[in-house]
What we know:
Number of domains: 1
Shape: elongated
Order of helices and strands: HEEHH
Helix content: over 70%
Structural class: mainly alpha
Number of strands: 2
Amino acid sequence: MKQIIEFFDTGLKYCVIAILLLSSLVFIFIFTINWEDWFFGIKLDGMVAGLYLLIKGLGAASLAFLLLKYPRYSLAITGIVIIYLGYLFVESAVPSGG
């Protein structure tokens, strides 16, 4: 039973890393293509949107890096990942102003 739990724990850890890397790629792609983003219903353009997209992309990449680099702190880092993804969810749930 313990081996099954460890197997699923490892699988979920790599799924979280994959999700973080994919979201980082998406944010960096949008950063390079189109500097527009929404921040709690407020449209951002130009340099402000570019910085916001870059921060979101680098934040996801750094969390994935931390999960790979420091496996003994995976519980604490996963808590930070939950906060990060929760922030992205709440931010996207706010309707736009226009």
